[in-house]
Specification:
The chain has 353 residues and is of the alpha/beta class. The chain has ten helices and eleven strands. Among the domains are: 165 residues, Rossmann fold (3-Layer(aba) Sandwich); 52 residues, no CATH class. The strands form three sheets. Strands 5-4-3-6-7-8-9 form a seven-stranded mixed beta sheet. It has a two-stranded antiparallel ribbon with strand order 1-2. α2 crosses α4. Pfam families: PCMT.
Length: 353
């Protein structure tokens, strides 16, 4: 499934193509996609295919095509502080992007059938938290994953604001999926070969919208134990943050505001000067050609402009020189604070860079 947009040379170019094709339509979704490099969720030997608009599967590991994830993210209408349940959470790629939007006071849970995929997702999540500069640009709602069949979720579990199922749902399981939603919630799932958005408008009222035709592998039916009983999946409890954790969130938020204010007062870029260039016009008259120069007010400075332009070209960095890596201003600010080192690293979530 996929192939709706051209392949990109890197993650940003892939996102540019998704935007141009109108799969990504909102700023929040665009920011989340740009913040997490899709290639980081591929095995090393398959990374050359990461920026193609194609699904990828290796063993139990699976990623949907970028155009599908784009439509899912847009349809979920995510907002900070919401609760999200990902059924068939896989590599955790989608859950991590969702976590960037939900923020520190959201809920981000995933259910995955295969324990080896859960372990893979945890490794990728840990790598993102430890090494990605994007982590410091957002307030992250870290996903929690549990192993089990998503058709065996305990009936006493909490309901969610947003639910996504990453496998084809049979018609007989539609009501089961809809009952995972709070009133006002949104469910997105492949239903009868259509990516479908269902909004719960009341205790027994629903609005359904078909988004696009898709082809997903069907949900795996539960395997009952020898006793004939199903193994119920217990979702993670909604955690209450400690006062210490809340203080870290508040301090980081304050520092980000200071950085933003400094950036507004002292922009870190130089505005390019717009110059008028000399114009030449060809005039046709009685089959003879005359070249005449059009005068304009900026002509007096044309020589100076051309000389300045030449100097700027000489001063430009050679093409083969790599650009400077992006600066993590939050990290710089925290490390400059007059605080004990253990507290600084706590504020940085003990990240490596």
């Amino acid at each position: 499934m996929g192939g709706a947009v051209s392949a990109g040379e890197d993650n940003d170019e892939l996102i540019d193509n998704l935007k141009e094709a109108q799969y990504i339509r909102t700023e929040l979704v665009e920011q989340a996609f740009r913040a997490i490099d899709r290639a980081d969720y591929y095995l090393e030997e398959f990374k050359e295919n990461a920026y193609k608009d194609l699904a990828w599967k290796h063993g139990n590991i699976h990623l949907s095509a970028p155009c599908i994830y784009s439509e899912v993210m847009e349809a979920l209408d995510l907002q900070p502080g919401l609760s999200f349940l990902n059924l068939g959470s896989g590599t955790g790629y989608l859950s991590s992007m969702v976590g960037l939007i939900l923020g520190p006071f959201g809920v981000n849970h995933g259910v995955e059938l295969h324990s080896d995929v859960i372990e893979y997702a945890k490794q990728k999540l840990d790598f993102f938290i430890r090494t990605s500069d994007s982590f410091d640009k957002f307030d992250f709602c870290e996903p929690s994953f549990v192993t089990g069949n998503c058709l065996e979720i305990s009936p006493d579990c909490s309901q969610y604001d947003r639910v996504y199922c990453g496998a084809g749902v049979q018609k007989e399981h539609e009501e089961y999926m809809k009952n995972l939603l709070k009133v006002g919630g949104i469910l997105v799932m492949p239903l009868e070969e259509k990516l479908t958005k269902i909004t719960r408008t009341g205790p027994s009222a629903w609005e359904t919208k078909k988004i696009l035709a898709v082809s997903f592998a069907p949900l795996i039916q539960p395997c009952h134990s020898e006793s004939g009983k199903s193994r119920l999946v217990q979702l993670p409890p909604v955690a209450v943050r400690s006062l210490q954790d809340l203080a870290r969130i508040a301090i980081r938020g304050t520092i980000k505001k200071v950085i933003h204010q400094e950036t507004v007062k002292h922009p870190r870029f130089k505005r390019r000067r717009v110059r008028r260039r000399r114009m030449e016009t060809i005039v046709f008259l009685d089959k003879e050609v005359f070249a005449s120069r059009i005068s304009n007010p900026s002509d007096d400075n044309s020589c100076e402009d051309l000389e300045e332009e030449r100097r700027e070209e000489e001063e430009k960095t050679p093409p083969e020189t790599k650009p400077d890596p992006p600066v993590n201003f939050l990290r710089q600010k925290v490390l400059s604070l007059p605080l004990p080192d253990p507290l600084k690293y706590y504020l940085l979530y003990y990240r490596e860079k």
